[in-house]
Specification:
The complex is a heterodimer of chains A (118) and B (115).
Chain A (H helix, E strand, L loop, with lengths): L4 E3 L2 E4 L5 E6 L6 E7 L6 E7 L2 E4 L8 E4 L6 E5 L8 E8 L12 E2 L3 E5 L1
Parallel strand pairs in A: 2-11
Antiparallel strand pairs in A: 1-3, 3-8, 4-5, 4-9, 5-6, 7-8, 9-10, 9-11
Chain B lengths: L3 E2 L4 E5 L4 E7 L6 E7 L6 E7 L4 E4 L2 E6 L4 E6 L8 E8 L1 E2 L2 E2 L3 E2 L3 E6 L1
Parallel strand pairs in B: 2-13
Antiparallel strand pairs in B: 1-3, 3-8, 4-5, 4-9, 6-7, 7-8, 9-12, 9-13, 10-11
Classes of the chains: A mainly beta (118), B mainly beta (115).
Chain lengths: 118, 115
Amino acid sequence: EAEVAQSPRYKITEKSQAVAFWCDPISGHATLYWYRQILGQGPELLVQFQDESVVDDSQLPKDRFSAERLKGVDSTLKIQPAELGDSAMYLCASSLVGLAGGGDNEQFFGPGTRLTVL
Amino acid sequence: DQQVKQNSPSLSVQEGRISILNCDYTNSMFDYFLWYKKYPAEGPTFLISISSIKDKNEDGRFTVFLNKSAKHLSLHIVPSQPGDSAVYFCAASSYYGGSQGNLIFGKGTKLSVKP
């Protein structure tokens, strides 16, 4: 069964360091999402890609966060420098339906990367 | 301001009984609703969805009910099984500009099904 892959599964870093997370969506899924989930909260969207283009990054803290999906397949989310408040689960999801699709919006999630900033 | 609210952080149910998880929303433009289940150390897994043109959708033991006038939806699990113990997230989106918008998630309800 096709799955969304993420790595690493766990990351511990010190504040002010740089961290990067990788995501490989389900093959053929045009839309890719990065979410942040703080303990006790629901996932919150950070950035959405349609193929290689960013379509929504309104909630991405652009002073320290960056995301790219250069070839429209896998994606990297970077934080530089990391802060204590960045400790959270970072989830990647993908969906078949893109901007021109409409209708169902079922997103498939990866296992996430648990980030701890010390 | 939370647009999707799950007011019960936790729910405990006996095996074999019905589990009812509730969700309220404030944005009347939402027209598509989903439930996700999440086990510890895993990403959310899609469970069931419902479009605003329906008031009920059923899939095996899982049924979602939508009351648009009350801006309320609920997930019923019958019969509940210990393996259903997980955190359940309600999510909603709206269709605009020719595409389905982003998912807005509630905070989740932790369901515990006791043998």
